[in-house]
Amino acid sequence: MLPQEVIRHKRDGKKLTKGEIDFFIKGVADWSVSECQIAAFAMAIYLRGMDIEETTNLTQAMTYSGAVMNWADKGLDGPVLDKHSTGGVGDSVSLILAPLLAACGGFVPMISGRSLGHTGGTLDKLNSIPGYTLVPSLDRFYQVTKEVGCAIIGQTSDLALADKRFYSVRDVTATIESVPLIAASILSKKMSAGIEGLIMDLKCGNGAFMNNIEDARVLAETMVAAATAAGMPTRAVITNMNEVLGENVGNALEIREVIAYLKGEHRNPRLNEIIMTLCSEALLLKGLAETREDAMARLRQALDSGKAAEKFAKMVAALGGPADLLENPEKHLPKASVIRPVYADRDGYVSAMDTRRIGETVIVLGGQRKIPDQQIDFSVGFTDFVQVGDIVNTDKPIAIIHAHSEETFAEAEKMLRSTIQVDDSAPVKQPVVYETVAA
Fold it and tell me: C or N: which end of the chain has fewer Cβ atoms within 10 Å?
């Protein structure tokens, strides 16, 4: 079998066999397939698509291209769960969800990524915590997950080997948006962690990669079907990304919002609704709760008792971060040099916002990457960001900008004003959670 023949078959619209897919992905992992062949294969899939059987086979081939974690002999007394988001702006959900599920009896070995385009990355947020080890050994990953109940890390060189190489080629060949490739990439990383259940947060709107609910639904149905066929129970929740999710945007600033949420100091209603929805689905998926009401009660108890906050603090300390981060966040998290509010051009109700451009403004501030190897400023971003429906005036700014210089502050201020639409009347309230897709 030759790589070019597999490419030719998909280019011509044929359905690939499991053997063809296994052969090609093995070649990606062992470098016997070249980058130009990966690019051609990705483009053929992008243009011709894959059915559920092909997508499932691709997912499994990429999963088993590297090590696969096995929790069966680790003596865990609860299910191994995980969550994935397709990316958003002000989306700190993973950092709250992992310790919250751990506080409810689950175990969460979460493999996360860095920022992509205008969306923030969970790893970059954790990287703002001094000393936090983003890529520990697999043994350490096992140990922290077992002892604490959760561990959030980056993709190691051992897991889903083919995906790491495949994704880097897709990123520069305009093939990111292929539904089968998105599904296989995400699911292979999750399945390589040996999880027993997955909850997907599929963002939909002007701040997401999927702009409309129809496209989001297609991706949700594909992901759920492929994951279920591969033996991993999965549910997908389609959520609204037509505005900033929380109130803080930026790496260290979102860590501050996470700490405030876990400690009960402040919980943004939209952020809270998505967290509670995703967590309740996870508890129901693997029998940690019998009913939705039971799930919600268990989640509230885990938050109000401080148990979820304790899990987060233990995870941070176990992976090298400061043991007193929750007590003294200002002592450890970086702070920007210039911190000032920005106001709308007129008074009125916030009726809409360009969420993608808000994310791009963080790039201008230096808080996300223009190029892959760029060093980012973890301190910059926005706090106290308005929500759609809020009134803005001389007393209520759009947000408070955190910048490293007067020049970047001025540029961000100009951009931010252009992202916010203000009208005389209040807008119609839109749902935060659109729907849930199950097998």
Answer: N
Alpha-carbon span 10 to 281, nearest angstrom: 37
Does residue 117 carry a pLDDT above 70? no
Q: Are 302 and 261 in contact (CB under 8 A)?
A: no
> CA-to-CA distance for 151 and 341, rounded, in angstroms?
35
89, 118 in Cβ contact below 8 A? yes
How far, in Å, are 17, 50, 116, 152, 347 from residue 306 at the CA level? 51, 46, 33, 20, 40
State both tokens at 145: 């997950």
Mean pLDDT of the chain: 93
How many Å apart are CA 179 and CA 181, to the nearest integer? 5
Residues 6+ apart with CB under 8 A from 383: 247, 248, 253, 256, 399, 400, 402
**What residue spans of 31-70 are helical by DSSP H?**
35-48, 52-63
**Which among 163, 166, 186 is positioned nearest to 87, based on CA atoms?**
186
Domains of the chain: 3-49 (1.20.970.10), 81-328 (3.40.1030.10), 335-423 (3.90.1170.30)
DSSP-derived 3-state class of residue 431:
coil
**Active-site residue set:** 82-85, 122, 170, 185, 189-190
Residue 393: closest CA among 436, 424, 354: 424
Question: Token pair of 15, please?
Answer: 């359905």
With a cut of 90, say whether residue 94 has pLDDT above it: yes
Residue 44 to residues 10, 79, 89, 225, Cα–Cα distance (Å):
6, 38, 31, 22
What is 332-373 written as a DSSP string?
Answer: HS---SEEEEE--SS-EEEEEE-HHHHHHHHHHHTSS-SSTT
Residues 6+ apart with CB under 8 A from 351: 388, 421, 422, 423, 426, 427
23-66 per-position pLDDT tens digit: 999 999 999 999 999 999 999 999 999 999 999 999 999 999 99
Question: How would you write 204-242 as a 3-class SS string?
Answer: ECCCCCCCCHHHHHHHHHHHHHHHHHCCCCEEEEEEECC
- The DSSP 8-state label assigned to residue 178 in this structure reads -
